[in-house]
Structures are given as C-alpha cells and as structure tokens.
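Box 3.1 A note on notation
Throughout this textbook, protein chains are presented in two layers. The first layer is the amino acid sequence; the second is a token string describing backbone geometry. Keep the layers aligned when reading.
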Amino acid sequence: MFDLRRLRVLQVLAEHGTVTATAAALHLTPSAVSQQLRQLARDLDVELLRADGRRVRLTPVARVLLAHADTLATQWEQARAELAAHRHEPVAGTLRICAVSSAIAALGAPAAVELRRTHPRLRVLLREEESGDCFALLRDDEADLAVVLPTPDTPPVADPRFDQHPLLDDPQDLLVRRGHRLDRPEGVALAEAAGEPWIVKPHHNDTHPLLTAACAAAGFTPRIEHQAKEWFAVSALVAAGCGVCLLPRIVPVPAEHPVVRVPLHGNPRPSRRFVACVRRGAAEHPVLAAGLAALAATHQHGSDTVPPRS
C-alpha cells in the first residue's frame, strides 16, 4: 500500500521540474518534499528519481507510475463516494467551496443558505479565488467543489482529473453612465462603443480576455484607460464618466451609482459560462451531490432575477 498524497507530490514534481518549485506549489519545505518522494519509492520498492547535477529527473519507472496516477485518484474518489453513500445517514461533515467573486455572491452564498436549510449537519466553507487557483485547490484536496469560469489557461473539459458540470450562462451588458449617448433601453451593438474609453479588471482576471476577444470580433481594439479589481470600483468609475465596461448580468451594481445596464444585441454577444467542478469520481459523494444540487437549485431559482438595466 502507499499514500496517494505522496503520489500527488510526484505529479507536482513532474509538472514543475524541481523540488524547490514543487515545495512552493504544495506549501511544503523542500526537505518535506524529498522525504515524501523517498517514502513513496520505499513503499513501491522502485527507483523514482535520479540525480542530474543540482536537479533530479524522473526514472522510466516513475513515468509508468504517473501514467496510472489520474486513474488511481479517480478510483479512490469513487470508492470514497460509494462508501459514504452506503452509510445511509443524514448528509453531514464539511463542504469546502471555492469560487470566483461573482459566483460567491450570486451562487455560493445562496447555495450555502439552502444547504443550511436542507442539511443542517453540513458545514459549508466558502473561499474566493480566481478560476485557475480554484482548480489547483481541487487538485490538492484543499477544496471539494469549485465554481469557475473556464479560460484558455484552465484545464479543458476532457482533463482526466476533474468532472466539470455546466451551471449558468452569464451574458455581458454594457455599463454606461446614465444619460450617456449609448443609454438606450432597446440595447446597442458592441461596435457602437468602439470609440469609448474602457474600464476593465486586471489581466489575470477572466473578464479581461473576454473583453478583448469580444471587441476583436466586433472589429475594434478597446482603448483601455482604467483598471480596477472590484466591480464596485468599476461601477464607480463608470458613474464618474471615466468610461464604459462590460458587466456580467449576474453582477449587481450599487443603487447609488448613476449608471445604466444596456443589453447588447447582434454579434458578438459576449457571455461567460459558469462551471461547477469536482475531482473526477467524487460527484456521487453525498456531501458533493448535495452541494451540486444546491448550486443548480440556486441557479434555477435566480437565473431570471437580474434585470437587464440598472
């Protein structure tokens, strides 16, 4: 027998290339990483690493083991799920949910309320992170369920480590100051905002590539003049007449801001897709099944509650 957590250390080493980088990714010391790898080699009675100057390299046997790693992890998650389901007890324990900020507000918090009502013995912990970090938390068993926005930098749907469940399509509206030339109840085409200064979230946020891709499809490059991390600040800048922005339909704006949410029509009509993710094989665990059901119920109940105009 061997500890699957040690196998995870080997996987991270294969991804990052050095013991130091592996230690940083796993929040361990380099000596702890080396110890875990030595113990894994002893457990399996094989040589996993060889010295290569000041670095280490994986042996052919290590490559063979890594080829089975995702399958082993999935089978373990499935076993845990089936064992938990056979207890025939009320859903209890802890559910760790990580999500992007807009999903925390619109989906995660309402789902936590629903879970407290339906499963009072279940403790729900919420954590805000960017999509890529959410996948890392799932991978490292620091979270159980993630609500993310897939980007070119996140794992694809076919990634064998995760099960990804489409949850909600979130259209983008144009947010403008009240009385702006594009303040039209019937909506506008994105190309009509080509000459406007734009306000965006920073580059590492999913909204930045969405804006640039949508504008490129509309035939222009946005003139980005301001960046802000929080939607409150973005809305405040729009209210001050500093520019316009794309605002996710799921995100509310402060009532005191003199801004208007203008629907976009024609092509392109940019939209984000929220996806609920778990480690592959874990979805049938009673705790995770309850979490996924609560998110789906929250989406179905609230999907039409956000008006197209603010």
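Confidence is low (pLDDT under 50) at residues 302-307. Residues 4-85 form a domain with the Arc Repressor Mutant, subunit A fold (CATH 1.10.10.10).
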